[in-house]
Amino acid sequence: MDSLPEAVLIRILAFIPAVDLVLVCRLVCCQWKNLVDGAALWILKCQQEGFAEEEPAEEADNWQVFYFLSKRKRNLIKNPCGEEDLEHWGDVANGGDGWKVEELPGDFGESFPSDGVHKYFVTSYEWCRKSQVIDLRAEGYWEELMDTTQPKIVVKDWYAGRRDAGCLYEFSAKLLSEHEDVLAEHKSETIAIPEDNDGSWNEASHTFSDYGPGVRFICFEHGGQDTLFWKGWYGVRVTNSSVMVEP
Fold it and tell me: F-box domain: which residues (predicted)?
């Protein structure tokens, strides 16, 4: 192995799982440590898995971190579209007739603007709110990463009204410490959708960055109600919620 050109050794190491590179290969010798800590190996692994182009246009601050974040990138919200009814969601408020899951497009509704979303949650004639708390460590985002790199956290939600009923909508996200102290928070304004609206789906989003050390949990919450106070489920519709830690 000592006689191998460095470029060849990098190509061999690139076939080894990333965790083994960091926890095992890095400890073999000074040369391997330098290669694992360097950019070339991780650029190659990013290229192999489609996270970077053959000739990266931009230089990442840390290609190793970029690789691990790209590998873990996914929606951290469980059951975002109601396919499992209300599983994984905690009720904050369950007014009127409470939450219900319906099939798209629903009565006096519109189809979702992209494929793969088939259901939505709908609110009633008093405020309905539900939430999820995401444990970042349990999802594979270790403390040093969150404290030092502080990757962007992108929160999104989709909402719509029935064409024959007005409604209200709100969403919020909080970054929480180990002891669930609020370190950063975004809360939307209360959005009013008038009666006789077009039923179209709208996206609400917020990006957290430079939020400081200590973030261990993310709390996502959304909800609303109808403004006509009709019995049943004439309030705001929500679906395809997402929380992603971006590379």
Answer: 1-45
